[in-house]
Structures are given as structure tokens and as C-alpha cells.
Design a protein that fits this description.
6-stranded mixed sheet; 8% strand
Length: 481
């Protein structure tokens, strides 16, 4: 057990999770006081001792599963005697009932029977997952769960019973559909119930998919060893994943980090005033006057509150940075609730203000897609034209900015060999307080091909590579210093 713990600590450090010697010793002492046969107790014990930040939990859980999988059993699988039809019936019942223990055993059997994993074969977890999922027929099970809960019928009823569905229900409010506002309320309730039924079915099926992935990993570890599987999986923290190439699960982890990042950025921007006048402090002046019989011989002052910054974001949403622009738009939505003065612009070969779109998406609690943001920013070819955009931005909007304005440009600075309009960027920079540029492209590719990053850099307070969350967080931290 101590050997497995040492290996786990080494792997955590390789990934980027800081584990001190003292924390390693604390974990070893804690293991001596818990029942080692209970895997979940061991997991919770090591998690408390080794993990300090919530964003490291996913990496810890995955590494723990690899190094503490306990796959040394030699007895026959418990469900090996079931026929395929009996196995399918058991799976349908387990997913519907939410029995976690049954799901785990069924996932193990589906991987053993249908995953195609053979001893000594190359690691092929993705293909095993596809084969096991297809054999489990999870889409049909999901549909059956929705139908059993009444979700499909409720959704159809919500549409059929809606106002005016049968040509009646209007006028005097005595027609079909329940009449008046009652029909609308019933329709809305039915639609909500249908959505809840679908969400519950999706959650149940996703839970079994998670068990399938765990069973595949346990099988691979039993055959090749934890270290070999760890190397093939390339386990990384969400903050070190390239945003443009992130998987769906990694994007979800990034979304969870956007809120704290936006809060930190908004706080720093509010404190960036270069000079703050002092104002009379009535409370301190009265306090000092207590020593002179209430006569205010000495006036006390205090710094005035920092002026609210005008934060302007100019975001490239062209095809070359489409994956990253989704993250940028989510960051804008998070900032919109924290900054009182935020203006957002998207551009491709034209410029479009999307401030209202961002506010509407935040109010509705939804994401803003790159296609929606780019709808008004495509004028001609659909390829990015920094020269035309910067000239329009400087000509129509720069005069509205002041020294209190902070401008953030997010783009790869690839002009498609057109005029970069450096003078227009310089004009904007001269009018505003600070201008920053975040480039989602790796620094080694700057100034290659049609990139003109070095021409824009002299007019920016900072130019930063921002392909990962860690790099963006470093940029935010640099503003504080």
C-alpha cells in the first residue's frame, strides 16, 4: 500500500498537483488508521491529505483509480453465467433503479464480454468504450426511461395543450386547453416535467458510461500496469489543457474556472487607477476632534474610491480561432455580471458590437456561440481582416473612450496578408488607459506567415500567449503586480 501511495504521489507531482513531503507523510499515517479493504474510505482519506484545490480533484480521482484499482482477483466474474438477453434485462433494471453496485458489476461484464480487450494487446480504451456502449444499446434504454417516466408524452401534451393548439382557447377563455391562463400554466408545467424526465434519463445513462470507462481502465491496468496506462492517457490538469483542443469534459472543467477568474480580473481592473484624489473623511475628522472638545482643528482625509473602469473587449471570432472564441464569449458573460461598464465587440472582416447579446445570454443563463456572435461581423469573405476592423474601431468608437478605459484585444493577429492598420491601433492605444493583447496562438508561431504580432506589440501594455487557463490566470495576476 505504501508503494502504491508513493507512486500516486509521484504521478500527482508529474501532472502538476503540488504534494509536499509533509502531506505525503500525513497520507501514509492516515492510511494506517483506516480500513484498507474499503476502497472509498481509502480514496477519501488520501483526497483529504493530498488535494488542496477543487480543480485538482478530477486528476486525483483518475490517478487513484489507476493505482488503487485492486484488479488482482482470480475468481470468475460474478455475472459470467448470464446470457446476453439476461444481461440486457439486468442492465435496464439497474440503470432504471440507480443501483450503483449493480451498475459497476454490469459495466465490468460488458467490458469483459464485448470490449474486445485482449491480454498483451495495445491499449485501445476508446474502441473498447465504443464496442461496449453499442452492445449495451444505451440510446434505446434512455428512450425507454423517458417513456416510462411520461416525459415524451408530457412533452407532446405540452405542445398539444398549448394556447391555440386546436384553434380554440382564445376569445372568451372558455375554449379547449384549460381556458385563460390555466392552460398556459399546465402547458409550462408539462414542459418542465418533460425536461426533468429527459435530464434524469441522461444522468442515469451517463452514470453507466462512467462505470464503463472505469471498468475499461481497470482491465487495462490489470494487463499492462498502472504506469503504462497513465502514460497513454496523458492526464493533465484543466488549467494546462490547450483551450482550442479541449475535449467536452475538459471544457466543462474550464467553465467551472471561468467564474473565479472573471471575479479576480474585475477586482484588479477596479484597482488600476493610476492616481486617486483624496477626500474628506468625516468619521476620522470627528474622531480627531474628540481630543479638542469637539472642535475640528485637524481635517482627516482618505483616498477616494477608485473610478469604475470602462472595460472594452475586442474578440476575433473567425474560423482560425473559433474554438478559443467560445471560451472568450463565456468569459465575457461572466464579466458582464461583475463589471458595471463592459462593452464587447466581435470581428471577422467586419466589426459588430455584441454588448447586448452578452447581457441577454447572461440574463438567460445560456452560453453565447461563436456563430451567433459572428453574425454581424462578416461583411465580405468571412476571413479575418484586422486592418479594416481596426480602422473602423478607431474611427467610430475610439473617441468614446477615455483614460479610464481598458481595452483587451483577443486574436491571433493574422491579417491574411492585408494592411494591418497599425496606426489605427496606435490611435486607440493613445486614447485609452491600457491596451492588452491576448493571443491564443503559441508564441513560436508569431510573426510566421501572415502574423503581424510584433507590429502590434509596441502599442500594447502587454502581449501574452493565452492558449491555456494557466496562462490567462498568469496574465490576470500580472495586472495585480
Amino acid at each position: 500500500m505504501q508503494s502504491a501511495l508513493s507512486t500516486l504521489v509521484d504521478e500527482l507531482r508529474i501532472v502538476g498537483v503540488g504534494v509536499s513531503v509533509g502531506e505525503h507523510l500525513d497520507a501514509a499515517r492516515a492510511l494506517a488508521s483506516v480500513p484498507l479493504a474499503d476502497r472509498e474510505v481509502v480514496r477519501a482519506t488520501l483526497q483529504c491529505a493530498l488535494v488542496k484545490r477543487s480543480e485538482h480533484l478530477d486528476a486525483f480521482n483518475l490517478l487513484f483509480e489507476l493505482h488503487f484499482s485492486g484488479t488482482g482477483r482470480t475468481e470468475p466474474p460474478p455475472l459470467a453465467g448470464l446470457t446476453d438477453s439476461e444481461l440486457a434485462a439486468a442492465l435496464r433494471a439497474a440503470i432504471g433503479s440507480g443501483d450503483a453496485a449493480a451498475r459497476r458489476l454490469l459495466a465490468q461484464e460488458y467490458v469483459r464480454r464485448f470490449g474486445g480487450l485482449e491480454p498483451g494487446a495495445p491499449v485501445a480504451g476508446v474502441f473498447a468504450m465504443i464496442a461496449a456502449s453499442a452492445a449495451a444499446n444505451l440510446d434505446t434504454i434512455r428512450d425507454d426511461l423517458i417513456a416510462a417516466a411520461g416525459g415524451g408524452a408530457a412533452g407532446a401534451a405540452a405542445v398539444a395543450d398549448g394556447p391555440g393548439a386546436d384553434g380554440e382557447g382564445g376569445g372568451d377563455g372558455t375554449g379547449g386547453g384549460g381556458g385563460g391562463s390555466g392552460g398556459g400554466w399546465n402547458s409550462a408545467a408539462a414542459a418542465i416535467a418533460a425536461r426533468l424526465d429527459r435530464a434524469a434519463a441522461d444522468s442515469a445513462v451517463d452514470a453507466f458510461k462512467t462505470e464503463l470507462r472505469s471498468a475499461i481502465r481497470r482491465s487495462l491496468v490489470a494487463d499492462r500496469g498502472a504506469r503504462a496506462v497513465t502514460k497513454t492517457m496523458r492526464i493533465r490538469l484543466a488549467q494546462d489543457v490547450n483551450i482550442a483542443n479541449a475535449s467536452a469534459a475538459e471544457q466543462e472543467a474550464m467553465l467551472a474556472s471561468i467564474g473565479p477568474l472573471a471575479q479576480r480580473l474585475s477586482k484588479i481592473l477596479a484597482q488600476q487607477a493610476a492616481y486617486r484624489k483624496r477626500r474628506l473623511s468625516v468619521r476620522r475628522t470627528i474622531h480627531l476632534a474628540m481630543g479638542t472638545g469637539g472642535v475640528p482643528f485637524r481635517l482627516a482625509t482618505e483616498p477616494a474610491p477608485p473610478p469604475r473602469p470602462d472595460f472594452v473587449v475586442l474578440a476575433d471570432v473567425s474560423g482560425s480561432v473559433a474554438s478559443f472564441s467560445r471560451f472568450t464569449l463565456n468569459l465575457l458573460i461572466a464579466l458582464d455580471s461583475r463589471l458595471s461598464r463592459l462593452r464587447a465587440f466581435s470581428f471577422v472582416d467586419g466589426l459588430a458590437e455584441i454588448t447586448e447579446l452578452v447581457s441577454e445570454a447572461r440574463s438567460a443563463g445560456r452560453q453565447l456561440g461563436p456563430a451567433e456572435a459572428a453574425a454581424g461581423a462578416i461583411r465580405r469573405s468571412g476571413s479575418s481582416d484586422y486592418g479594416s476592423v481596426l480602422r473602423e474601431f478607431a474611427g467610430e468608437y475610439a473617441r468614446q473612450f477615455s483614460r479610464r478605459t481598458v481595452v483587451l484585444v483577443v486574436g491571433d493577429a493574422r491579417t491574411n496578408y492585408g494592411d494591418p492598420a497599425v496606426a489605427s491601433l496606435a490611435d486607440v492605444s493613445d486614447r485609452v488607459g491600457k491596451l492588452y493583447w491576448l493571443n491564443p496562438e503559441a508564441r513560436r508561431y508569431w510573426d510566421q506567415g501572415d502574423s503581424v504580432m510584433s507590429q502590434y506589440a509596441p502599442h500594447c501594455a502587454q502581449v501574452r500567449e493565452c492558449s491555456t487557463l494557466r496562462q490567462i490566470a498568469d496574465f490576470v495576476q500580472s495586472l495585480a503586480s
